[in-house]
Every structure is written in structure tokens, then in C-alpha cells.
Design brief:
single chain, 172 residues, alpha+beta, Ubiquitin-like (UB roll), 2 domains, 5-stranded mixed beta sheet, 4-stranded antiparallel beta sheet, 33% strand, metal-binding, transport, iron-sulfur
Length: 172
């Protein structure tokens, strides 16, 4: 498996944040500023130590220690409702595809809005999705990044509907 080697650094008065992409997610680490640490990250920059603490971790690792519950999820797409069982460590999209339910999808990373849906009932964790809080408050979810926290019901929506809500305000 190849990992990206680029990293970005943000320097504050007393600390630095190192954002280094790993596989399909970013690992964010903090490093307190101390003498003799410049060579490690920037060569000529003084005072950066690499005592790192993990702030965010990929979904697959976070979920290993959580419950192994299985939730009943109703997915409505193009007027047809399918009932599937979704383990807490799988996304609704992955469980649906595994069960033979065809749903629109593309990036599988919570960015493109192809797998847009509305949460009608229940609770999900979609902390890996790149949705604004305003869009989430309207009930929009991305099925490729939605992990059930309870039994739930979702209904797919036109990709353009969520795309416009999420990104439309940035287009001319």
C-alpha cells in the first residue's frame, strides 16, 4: 500500500499542527514548540519538537473498539424501499451494495454528493463526510460515510439537490 508523503505544517506561538495524509484519510498531529526540533520537520526552522498526539484517526480504526451492533436500515431509492441489516462498522452504502441493493455512488470518500440521501428517522455517524453543519441540520447524509448508530430510515435524493446546498454558494 502506498502512502502519500506530502505534509502541511501550521505554526503557532507555542505549537505546530502537522497534517499528513495517510491512505484515504488525513492524520492530524500536534507538536509543541521546543528547541532543537527544527531539523526534523523543516530543516532551518527552529524550535519544533515531534512529540505527536493523534487528534483524528480513520473511521475503520475508531470503530474497532465500539459495539458490534447490527441495525435495521430502510433505504428508499427511486420509489423502492429495501430493508437491510447494517453492522455498526460498515457504511449504509457498503451494506446496501453487499445486499445487492444498487445505489448511486462514486468517490466513497464523503465528498462528491453522488450518494446523497435524507435521514428520515434514526441516528447516524457521518463524521468522515465533508458536509457543512448547515447541510447536516437539513437532514442530508452521504451514504458512503454514514455509519448507523440506531435503526434508521433514509431516502436517496437527487445529487444536484445536495450539491447545490453544499457547494452552490461558492459558484458564480
Amino acid at each position: 500500500m502506498a502512502f502519500a508523503s506530502t505534509a502541511s505544517f501550521v505554526f503557532g506561538k507555542d505549537s505546530a499542527i502537522v497534517n499528513r495524509p495517510v491512505a484515504s484519510c488525513s492524520t492530524v498531529r500536534t507538536a509543541p514548540v521546543t528547541p532543537n526540533s527544527s531539523k526534523l520537520l523543516l530543516g532551518k526552522r527552529s524550535a519544533l519538537n515531534v512529540t505527536r498526539s493523534l487528534v483524528a484517526e480513520p473511521r475503520s480504526f475508531r470503530h474497532v473498539t465500539e459495539s458490534n451492533a447490527v441495525f435495521n436500515v430502510e433505504v428508499t431509492h427511486d420509489g423502492k424501499t429495501s430493508k437491510i441489516q447494517v453492522p455498526s462498522d460498515k457504511t449504509i452504502l457498503q451494506a446496501a451494495l453487499d445486499a445487492g441493493v444498487e445505489l448511486p455512488n462514486s468517490c466513497l470518500a464523503g465528498v462528491c454528493t453522488t450518494c446523497s440521501a435524507k435521514l428520515l428517522d434514526g441516528k447516524i455517524d457521518q463524521s468522515d463526510a465533508v458536509l457543512s453543519p448547515e447541510v447536516e441540520e437539513q437532514g442530508f447524509v452521504l451514504l458512503c460515510s454514514s455509519y448507523p448508530l440506531s435503526d434508521c430510515k433514509v431516502k436517496t435524493v437527487a445529487e444536484d439537490e445536495l450539491y447545490q446546498e453544499q457547494y452552490g454558494k461558492y459558484e458564480a
